[in-house]
Design brief:
With about 625 residues, the protein is α+β, with helices and mostly antiparallel strands. The protein has 25 helices and 17 strands. The strands form three sheets. Strands 2-3-1-9-8-10 form a six-stranded antiparallel sheet.
Length: about 625
């Protein structure tokens, strides 16, 4: 787990010292991602430079240092992440090879030499983002893992093609001139995150999961392709034909293999443990594989409505883990929010970013690597919204065409203008009519997942990301599966995995997600719906794996999101901070937001008419980011 950065100066006008200095400045901006070591490489004749910060996990010696060159000098790589099956690949590649160390990076270089980039990528089980300099092909190739666990930004800074794990590294390039992309602001207001390929900076994009991008060293031509297509993958996933018992057995077998691979490390290892099914299953299976108690970590809140710590403690006691917990008090919040613009160096507004950051620091006190339960909801149907949205789609489909044309927006706007009144009848009516007009269940879902759906919005909001009209989607006969796929290729990589990566790396902690192993993903997509949904609940097959290790009595409770009591915090310890950020003059600065609806919603929230904390948090994270980065 590391931070990578680099650029190709197409003018070839810089000498080695200048190239190295820029690459070092870019990588040094990500010291938190790699406090253990650093490295820089450049080639004056091509204008290419690579920078690296190392968090040593595998092969702690100098033999694992990067940038790393292949024995013949053809390839130079900087790599962020882990290749979990590197030991199997190493045995396959051995053939008397003289290995210098035992890092997965060295195995990657051997794999590229033996199978080419695409052949190697097809064999990797891992989370990764890398830049590969190829002296023979005269290219630099960027690649990102299938599910989007590791980040990679890229684009142009003047006449230099730049790339990095985080935007702050790109901002460190002397030719970069920051300009906010209004599409990104609109997406943030709508979704609470900025979906790929857009970034907050105009001209800088996120490389999509499962994609490669190749830059020619002779002229800077850029081409992008997918080595892994999620739509093709889900449509080609072999349908599981066994019974329930065999499905549970196969899932447990796949999870044990995935977890076993992710427990290989030369540093202390632990796990995040909430009171939910996903992390409990991961920790339970870890404990069956471990020779001593697994170190588990939980965050709690003083407000019991949001506190999962007691459930996590009960699970930990049953499993026999070495459990650690800390409670977040309301007075801790100001210190946390001040860090958000620098931890997430583009605006990001998932409210659980606060406890995730604290949890990461708690875990880092004892371990360098932690396993998580990320992906369980998206792969096995854990969110109640899948059932609810599918039921609404079935109910409203007869009304879905032309309904909004029957009632003009003029009267609705008048009704909606009753700001300050409990209930906002006009907003509710507009939501219902708007939902019934959607042309597909995906667009119904997009609307339901959007914030700022009140009639008066603070910004024009063109849709970006997965929900753009014309996006290719898999042919699935179950509406719930269609919604799960939406989340697996948008909400999961662009929100949840961003949240965990940036928070954990801010603490110099590596996280690993066993459920995102490619074989488990393929297995989950091939499972019929009856193995996922039962009696209105999702994750049935995953629950039954957990039943083998943890009594159902410890797990039978409604699903609870990992979020703080933010609504009350905004009326309490965060009130003055928020009030200042959304004052009318600050909102008007830059012309990105319309102050009137924001101020109206803020007043409603303060009076307790309605909880608008999600909508307000989007605005506050944008405003605090702009203030911190002076944009």
């Amino acid at each position: 787990m590391c931070g990578i950065a680099g650029f190709i100066d197409t003018t070839r006008g810089r000498d080695a010292d200048a190239l190295s200095a820029i690459a070092k400045a870019m990588s040094d901006s990500m010291l938190h991602r790699g406090p253990d070591d650093e490295g820089v490489w450049c080639e004056v004749s091509t204008g290419a430079a690579l920078g690296f910060r190392r968090l040593a996990i595998q092969d702690l010696s100098a033999d694992g240092a990067q940038p790393m060159a292949s024995p013949d000098g053809r390839f130079i790589i900087v790599f962020n992440g882990e290749i979990y099956n590197f030991l199997e690949l190493r045995r396959e590649l051995d053939n008397g090879r003289n290995w210098r160390g035992h890092s997965d990076t060295e195995v990657m270089l051997a794999a590229f030499d033996a199978w080419g980039v695409d052949g190697a990528l097809a064999r990797f089980d891992g989370m990764f983002a890398f830049a590969l300099y190829d002296a023979k092909a005269r290219t630099v190739t960027l690649a990102r893992d299938r599910m989007g666990e590791k980040p990679l930004y890229c684009g142009w800074a003047g006449k230099s093609f730049v790339f990095a794990s985080e935007l702050k590294a790109i901002a460190a390039h002397p030719d970069f001139e920051p300009a906010i992309d209004r599409r990104a602001v609109a997406a943030l207001m709508r979704y609470s995150y900025i979906p790929a390929p857009v970034s907050i900076y105009r001209g800088i994009e996120k490389l999509p999961p499962g994609a490669t991008l190749t830059v020619s060293l002779d002229g800077g031509a850029v081409s992008q392709s997918r080595y892994w297509d999620p739509v093709a993958e889900i449509e080609a996933a072999p349908a599981f034909e066994g019974d329930e018992t065999s499905a549970v057995r196969e899932l447990e077998r796949l999870m044990l293999r995935s977890i076993s691979r992710r427990m290989v490390a030369d540093v202390p290892l632990g796990a995040f443990l909430s009171g939910g099914i996903d992390s409990a299953t991961v920790v339970a299976l870890m404990q069956t594989l471990a020779e001593k108690p697994v170190r588990s970590f939980t965050i709690g809140f003083t407000d019991r409505r949001f506190d999962e710590a007691p459930q996590a403690a009960a699970i930990a006691q049953h499993l026999g883990t070495d459990h650690n917990s800390v409670t977040v008090a309301p007075e801790d919040t100001l210190q946390m929010v001040a860090r958000m613009p620098f931890v997430y160096d583009e605006p990001f507004a998932d409210v659980s970013q606060l406890p995730t950051l604290l949890l990461s620091h708690l875990a880092r006190e004892q371990v360098t690597t932690a396993l998580t339960g990320d992906g369980g909801d998206e792969l096995f149907g854990g969110y109640p919204r899948y059932e609810k949205t599918a039921a609404q789609w079935d109910r409203d489909r007869p009304f879905s065409r032309g309904l909004l044309n029957l009632i003009p927006f003029g009267p609705l706007n008048v009704i909606s203008s009753g700001v300050g009144k409990p209930g906002r009848f006009g907003d509710k009516l507009w939501r219902k009519l708007s939902d019934r007009s959607k042309p597909s269940i995906e667009m119904l879902y997009e609307g339901q997942m959007s914030r700022w759906r009140v009639f008066d919005r603070p910004i024009e909001d063109p849709i970006v990301g997965y929900f753009v009209e014309g996006t290719r989607r898999p042919k699935l006969d179950d509406d719930r599966l269609r919604l799960m796929f939406c989340d697996a290729v948008s909400y999961l990589p662009d929100d949840l995995l961003v949240k965990v990566d940036r928070a954990s790396m801010a603490a110099s902690l590596e996280t690993r997600a066993p459920l995102l192993n490619h074989d488990i993903v393929r297995f989950a997509w091939g499972l019929p719906s009856r193995f996922k949904f039962r009696n209105g609940q999702g994750k049935d097959v995953l629950r039954k794996v957990l039943d083998r290790h943890v009594p159902r009595t410890l797990m039978d409770r409604p699903k609870q999101g990992f979020e703080p009591p933010l609504a009350e915090w905004l009326r309490g310890p965060l009130r003055d901070w928020a009030q200042a950020l959304i004052s009318s003059d600050r909102l008007e600065d830059g012309g990105f937001l319309d102050p009137e609806p924001v101020r109206a919603v803020w007043e409603e929230h303060l009076k307790g008419y309605r909880n608008w904390h999600f909508e307000l948090w989007n605005v506050l994270m944008l405003q605090s980011w702009r203030e911190a980065w002076k944009l």
